[in-house]
C-alpha cells in the first residue's frame, strides 16, 4: 500500500513536470508565432511604403495630412515613417530596450524633416488609446522633441531623460 502511494505520488509529480514543460513549450511557440507575424507585418508595411515612395499616385492614398504637401515632402514623410516604424519594430521584437529606443528617438528628432513629419501626423496619434504602448512611445518622442526645442544647449545627446529601468 505504501509502495503504491509512493508510485502514485511520483507519477503525479512527473505528470505535473510534464504539464509544466508542455506549457513552457506552448508559450515559446506562441511567442515565436507572434514574432513571426510581427516580422511579416513589418515587411509588408515597409514594402507598401516603398511602393508609395516610388509612385506618387500610390503615395496620394497615404496623404492624410491636414495640409497640402508636395510629392517630394510626402516621400520624405513616408521615409520618416519607415524609420520610426522600424525603430518601433526593433523594440517590439526585443532587439532594443525602451532606453535604447529613447536613444534612437533622440537622434531621429534632431532632423528638421522628421520634426515636420511628426507635427504633420499629430492627429494620427490622437486616436490611440492613452494606455497603448504606441501612445506611450509616441509621447516619449513628443517629450524629446519638446525638450530639445526648449534646451539651451547644443549638446542634443544629453537632452531628455531616458526611461529608468525599462526593458
Summarize the model shown:
72% of the residues lie in helices and 0% in strands.
What labels describe this entry?
167 residues; mainly alpha; 7 helices; 72% helix
Task: Give an overview of the whole structure.
This protein has 167 residues and is an all-alpha fold. Helix content is 72%, strand content 0%. It has 7 helices and no strands. The protein has helices at residues 2-54, 56-59, 71-92, 98-108, 112-120, 122-125, 133-150. Helix 1 packs antiparallel against helix 3, helix 3 packs antiparallel against helix 4 (98-108) and helix 3 packs across helix 5 (112-120). The chain is elongated. It starts with a helix and ends in a 17-residue tail after the last helix. The model has no long low-confidence stretch (mean pLDDT 84).
Layout of strands and helices, then pairs:
Layout: H1 2-54, H2 56-59, H3 71-92, H4 98-108, H5 112-120, H6 122-125, H7 133-150
Number of helices: 7
Order of helices and strands: HHHHHHH
Helix content: over 70%
Question: Proportion of β residues?
Answer: under 5%
Shape: elongated
Structural class: mainly alpha
Amino acid at each position: 500500500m505504501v509502495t503504491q502511494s509512493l508510485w502514485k505520488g511520483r507519477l503525479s509529480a512527473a505528470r505535473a513536470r510534464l504539464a509544466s514543460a508542455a506549457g513552457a513549450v506552448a508559450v515559446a511557440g506562441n511567442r515565436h508565432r507572434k514574432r513571426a507575424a510581427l516580422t511579416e507585418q513589418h515587411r509588408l508595411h515597409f514594402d507598401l511604403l516603398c511602393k508609395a515612395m516610388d509612385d506618387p499616385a500610390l503615395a496620394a492614398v497615404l496623404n492624410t495630412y491636414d495640409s497640402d504637401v508636395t510629392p517630394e515632402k510626402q516621400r520624405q514623410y513616408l521615409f520618416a515613417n519607415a524609420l520610426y516604424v522600424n525603430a518601433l519594430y526593433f523594440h517590439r521584437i526585443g532587439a532594443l530596450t525602451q532606453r535604447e529606443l529613447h536613444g534612437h528617438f533622440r537622434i531621429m528628432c534632431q532632423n528638421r524633416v522628421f520634426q515636420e513629419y511628426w507635427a504633420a501626423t499629430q492627429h494620427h496619434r490622437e486616436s490611440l488609446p492613452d494606455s497603448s504602448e504606441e501612445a506611450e512611445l509616441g509621447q516619449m518622442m513628443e517629450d524629446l522633441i519638446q525638450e530639445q526645442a526648449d534646451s539651451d544647449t547644443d549638446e542634443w545627446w544629453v537632452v531628455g531623460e531616458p526611461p529608468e529601468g525599462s526593458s
